[in-house]
């Protein structure tokens, strides 16, 4: 019996005998997680994408340009809320608004008007609040003048007109003196500041004409205190 080597020529057919194929093992299939849905075919969407699809998230938030736009945004947000959610949102808005108001009254630079920001303006307010001036009586006297002018009496009308002219003269004279004094005090305390001149004087006069209980931010010192 003749042995034929692999790949040798067959004597009868004259053709090369095919080499035996290598044995291959079957590839094991990956384990399937029973908790994972089969045949999904696409990745799981992110949570923020799902919220946008349901209207819970509106994408990047930009500040409204006008009051009308802000009002429309609030209406759109409230339309997608339930009654309890709207009530809770209103309560949160009231609490946040009250907190901002209190911080503004305390003189927090993050919430006060631009005209009230800074150490220089805070010093000017304290200076006005610690001094008593004739100009402090402007609003109460102006109220009395208006009441007198409403009374149909010629004598009271003449008296109210004279009192009004005197009041205007006092306000002008004392206002000029107050503005110059506050500017001098500011320059001494803050020699490098540029916030002086007519703007600072007018700021001090406007605060001095208001009653203490109506001043914003509220006074931090009492008359006579050292600053």
UniProtKB/TrEMBL annotation:
For this protein, the parts annotated as crossing the membrane are 134-151, 157-179
Classification via InterPro entries: DUF3043
Q: Tell me yes or no: is Repeat among this UniProt entry's keywords.
A: no
Keyword Signal found: no
Q: Which UniProt keywords apply?
A: Membrane, Transmembrane, Transmembrane helix
Locate the compositionally biased regions of type Basic and acidic residues: 82-97
Enumerate the residue ranges of region (Disordered).
1-97
Per its record, how is this protein called by name? DUF3043 domain-containing protein
């Amino acid at each position: 019996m003749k042995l034929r080597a692999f790949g040798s020529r067959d004597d009868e057919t004259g053709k090369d005998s095919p080499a035996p194929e290598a044995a291959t093992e079957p590839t094991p299939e990956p384990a399937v997680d029973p908790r994972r849905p089969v045949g999904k075919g696409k990745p799981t969407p992110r949570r923020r994408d799902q919220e946008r699809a349901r209207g819970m998230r509106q994408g990047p938030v930009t500040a409204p340009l006008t009051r009308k736009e802000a009002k429309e945004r609030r209406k759109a947000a409230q339309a997608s809320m339930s009654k309890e959610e709207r009530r809770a949102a209103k309560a949160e808005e009231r609490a946040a608004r009250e907190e901002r108001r209190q911080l503004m009254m305390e003189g927090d630079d993050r919430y006060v008007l631009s005209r009230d920001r800074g150490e220089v303006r805070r010093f000017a307010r304290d200076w006005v609040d610690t001094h008593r001036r004739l100009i402090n009586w402007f609003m109460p006297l102006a109220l009395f003048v208006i009441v007198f002018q409403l009374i149909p009496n010629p004598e009271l009308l003449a008296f109210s007109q004279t009192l009004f002219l005197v009041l205007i003269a006092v306000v002008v004279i004392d206002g000029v003196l107050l503005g110059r004094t506050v500017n001098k005090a500011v320059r001494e305390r803050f020699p490098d500041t540029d916030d002086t001149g007519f703007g600072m004087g007018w700021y001090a006069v406007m605060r001095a004409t208001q009653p203490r209980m109506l001043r914003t931010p509220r006074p931090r010192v009492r008359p006579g205190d050292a600053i």
